[in-house]
Write a structure and sequence with these properties.
It is a single chain. This protein is of the alpha+beta class. 54% of the residues lie in helices and 21% in strands. The chain is built from 6 helices and 8 strands, in the order αβαβααααββββββ. The chain has helices at 14-31, 44-47, 62-128, 132-150, 154-157, 163-185, and strands at 35-43, 53-61, 188-191, 204-212, 220-225, 227-230, 233-236, 238-245. The strands form 3 sheets. It has a 3-stranded antiparallel sheet with strand order 3-6-7. A 3-stranded mixed sheet has the order 4-8-5, with no helix packed on it. It has a two-stranded antiparallel ribbon with strand order 1-2. The longest helix is centred in the middle third of the chain and has 67 residues, at 62-128. Residues 2-9, 32-37 and 39-73 have low confidence and may be disordered.
Length: 248
C-alpha cells in the first residue's frame, strides 16, 4: 500500500520500490505477449541503501520495440528503394553506352572491310592493267606487221619465183607470232570480226558504211583494224565498216 496513507515516512523503502516494480511487470506482461529486459540504474538515496547505485531490470513490451523496429525497417526500405532506383538508372545508362559502342564497333568493322575490299580490288586492277599504256603503244607495231603481211599477194607467199620476198614474208610472220605470244602472256588477245557479224558498239568502232542489198543493215561490212582485249576489258575497239540498206 501507499506508505503516506498509513502515516509512514515519506522516504520510500526498498520493499516499496520492489512492489511498484512487481506491479509494473504484471501490467506489462498483461498488455503484451512478449517482453524484454533492459537494465536501469537507480540512485541509492532513493532506495535508502548503502551503495551509491544499484542496477535493476526493466521490463519493456514488444509494442515499443516493434514501433522502433518498424521505423528502422521503414527507413531502410526507403533507402533501398532509392539505391535500387539509382542502380537501375545507372544500369540503363551503361546499357545505352554499350549499345552505342557496339553499334560504332560494327560500323567500324564494316568500314574497315570495305576499305580492305576496295584496296584489294585496286591492287588487282593495278596488277592486271598496269601495262595498258605500254600495250596500246605496242599495238601500233602489231598493226604495221599485219599490214606488211597482208600486202604480200597470196601466190607469192609460198612461191619460189621470188625467194627473197618469200623469206622476208616468213621472217615478218615469225616476228608477228612472237609479238602476239608476248601479248597473250599479258592476257592481251586479238579479235577480228567477220563480214556479216552483228555490230556491237562495245567492241566495234564504225567509221564508214557500205550499201548492200544482201546483208542486213548494221552488220559488219569490213574490218580495217583488229581489236584487242586485256582480260575482260576492251583495250582497243576494232575499226570496222557497216552495211546500210541500198536505195534503188
Amino acid at each position: 500500500g501507499d506508505p503516506l496513507k498509513y502515516g509512514y515516512s515519506t522516504r520510500p523503502t526498498f520493499p516499496y520500490i520492489m512492489s511498484l516494480l512487481s506491479r509494473a511487470v504484471k501490467s506489462t506482461i498483461t498488455s503484451s505477449s512478449r517482453v524484454h529486459l533492459r537494465p536501469v540504474s537507480v540512485n541509492a538515496r532513493v532506495l535508502g541503501t548503502a551503495s551509491s547505485h544499484r542496477t535493476f531490470w526493466r521490463w519493456n513490451s514488444t509494442s515499443e520495440q516493434g514501433e522502433t523496429g518498424e521505423t528502422t525497417n521503414s527507413l531502410s526500405a526507403e533507402q533501398l528503394k532509392t539505391k535500387l532506383a539509382e542502380s537501375e538508372s545507372k544500369t540503363k545508362e551503361l546499357e545505352e553506352k554499350v549499345k552505342d559502342t557496339h553499334d560504332k564497333y560494327i560500323r567500324t568493322l564494316a568500314d574497315m572491310e570495305n576499305v580492305r575490299r576496295i584496296a584489294a580490288m585496286d591492287v588487282d586492277k593495278a596488277r592486271k592493267f598496269a601495262v595498258v599504256g605500254f600495250a596500246k603503244d605496242i599495238l601500233e607495231v602489231a598493226d604495221n606487221l599485219s599490214r606488211a603481211l597482208e600486202s604480200v599477194p597470196e601466190e607469192l607467199r609460198t612461191s619460189d619465183a621470188n625467194p627473197q620476198l618469200k623469206n622476208l614474208y616468213e621472217g615478218v610472220k615469225m616476228t608477228e607470232n612472237i609479238l602476239q605470244n608476248v601479248l597473250q602472256r599479258k592476257e592481251i588477245t586479238r579479235y577480228r570480226p567477220n563480214v556479216g557479224d552483228k555490230f556491237d558498239p562495245n567492241i566495234h568502232n564504225a567509221t564508214f558504211k557500205l550499201p548492200s542489198a544482201t546483208h542486213p543493215e548494221g552488220s559488219i561490212a569490213a574490218c580495217i583494224t583488229d581489236g584487242y582485249m586485256i582480260h575482260d576489258r576492251v583495250l582497243r575497239a576494232a575499226v570496222v565498216g557497216t552495211h546500210e540498206r541500198k536505195v534503188e
